[in-house]
Amino acid sequence: MAFRAKAAGRGGLVLGALALAAAMGPGQEQGQPPAKAARAEVASRSQAAGKAKAAAARRAYEQARAFYVERQPGAWLDGTYLWSVRMLHAALEMAERAESREAAYKVHLEGMASLERLLRRTARIGMTNQFDLSAVEFYRIEAEQWLEREQAK
């Protein structure tokens, strides 16, 4: 009887150890605290999602810009601007250093400035309306302000 009690005690100890190991989760068996392992996993997933979001925003921006420049049905200037801003936000979410944030603002500014240059050329031959010309000027000025604010930090 005493043997059975000791054996059952050892079995309970083994089952308890197995339950503890299962509850520890990934990363803890290497000695990482549970919160640190969870944060590392979330950061890894977040970084991958951020890269995918930035790539999708870039593709949408390039398509919106091409459709607008080619005067495709349903294309509009604000769509190009919107996707440029989304691309900027995706880059800012992933930026870990001031240089990366500044570079993201510069990309947005260059996109708006090049679009403005294009619209000014097409306005000279009557292919751009004054509304779009005023809007793209606003977008470029706004982008300049955003970059200046970032540089002043």
Broad structural category: mainly alpha
Distance between the termini: 76 Å
Q: What is the ordering of alpha helices and beta strands?
A: HHHHH
Number of helices: 5
Count of individual beta strands: 0
Q: What would the average pLDDT be, to the nearest integer?
A: 84
Helix content: over 70%
Residue ranges: pLDDT <50 for 5 or more in a row?
A: 3-8, 12-25
Radius of gyration: 28 Å
The quaternary structure here is single chain
Shape: elongated
**Which percent range describes the beta-strand content?**
under 5%
Largest sheet: none
For the structure shown, list the relevant keywords.
5 helices, 153 residues
Written overview of the protein:
This protein has five helices and no strands. By secondary structure, the protein is an all-alpha fold. The longest helix is centred in the middle third of the chain and has 36 residues.
List the helices and strands and how they pair.
Elements: H1 2-24, H2 34-69, H3 77-94, H4 98-124, H5 130-152
Task: Give a short overview.
About 85% of the residues lie in helices and about 0% in strands. The chain has about 150 residues and is mostly helical.
